[in-house]
Specification:
Layout lengths: L2 H29 L4 H29 L4 H15 L1 H11 L5 H28 L3 H26 L11 H20 L5 H35 L1
Length: 229
């Protein structure tokens, strides 16, 4: 069994385990009349709230010279909590028999908005804190995140399957959220290098998301070449 197969197997097992936990919540949401699109929208609003906290933290750091790490911690917690809605909406659609083509498109589009808001908020936070390098790294993370999804969408538009790569959306969400949480907690404890955790988290996404996009381009090109043969 190769690394790719092992990673897929582990992801599938983890996903099934998460579904066991969230399915009772899903049934509760269906019972009170929630639709998949409502759940997706709530997830977006939560991520916007996280982005706002990053912006406020950056503005306060710029005005006072002190970073309010409590806000960074809360932002990380919001990203984790409301990103779970990304799994809930799909399950609500499947279990509730409410799956639709528009719903799939709506979910995909709002996923992109979630990432743009949260990573944009982090970039503003670093820029306002006077860390231009970290802001640029986060901007590269934004580019990589969008291109991973864009390449897949273009490939699927050509009739290709293109889901390869390490730094897909679930991984990016986990890295972003944990980076913010750990930075916030360490900062509150007075650790001087607390910001480095979030910076390295953004660097990880910037590198591997762009590598994933490049790998998907190459993989799609190979598939197209094989089709012509």
């Amino acid at each position: 069994m190769n690394i790719k197969t092992t990673a897929k197997s582990l992801r599938d097992k983890l996903q099934k385990g998460i579904y066991v936990v969230i399915n009772p919540i899903v049934k509760g949401l269906i019972a009170i009349g929630m639709t998949p699109n409502m759940v997706t929208t709530i997830g977006l609003l939560g991520n916007i709230a996280a982005a706002i906290l990053f912006v406020i933290a950056g503005a306060q750091a710029s005005a006072t010279g002190e970073i309010p790490y409590t806000l960074v911690t809360w932002a990380g917690g919001l990203i984790i909590g409301f990103s779970l809605f990304d799994m809930l909406d799909g399950q609500v659609a499947r279990i509730g028999g409410m799956a639709s083509t528009f719903g799939a498109m709506y979910d995909s589009v709002l996923d992109r908005y979630c990432e743009l808001f949260t990573l944009g908020g982090i970039s503003f936070f670093f820029l306002s804190s006077g860390n231009l390098g970290a802001a640029l790294i986060t901007y590269l993370a934004v580019i990589g995140s969008i291109m991973v999804s864009y390449v897949r969408a273009r490939a699927e538009g050509l009739g290709l399957e293109c889901k390869i790569g390490f730094m897909q959306r679930p991984e990016r969400v986990v890295v972003t959220a944990l980076g913010a949480l750990v930075t916030g907690i360490l900062g509150q404890c007075g650790v001087e290098w607390a910001d480095a955790v979030l910076i390295y988290a953004m660097l990880l996404i910037a590198i591997f998301a762009n590598l994933t996009a490049a790998a998907r381009i190459a993989y799609s090109g190979k598939q197209l070449k094989n089709k012509k043969q």
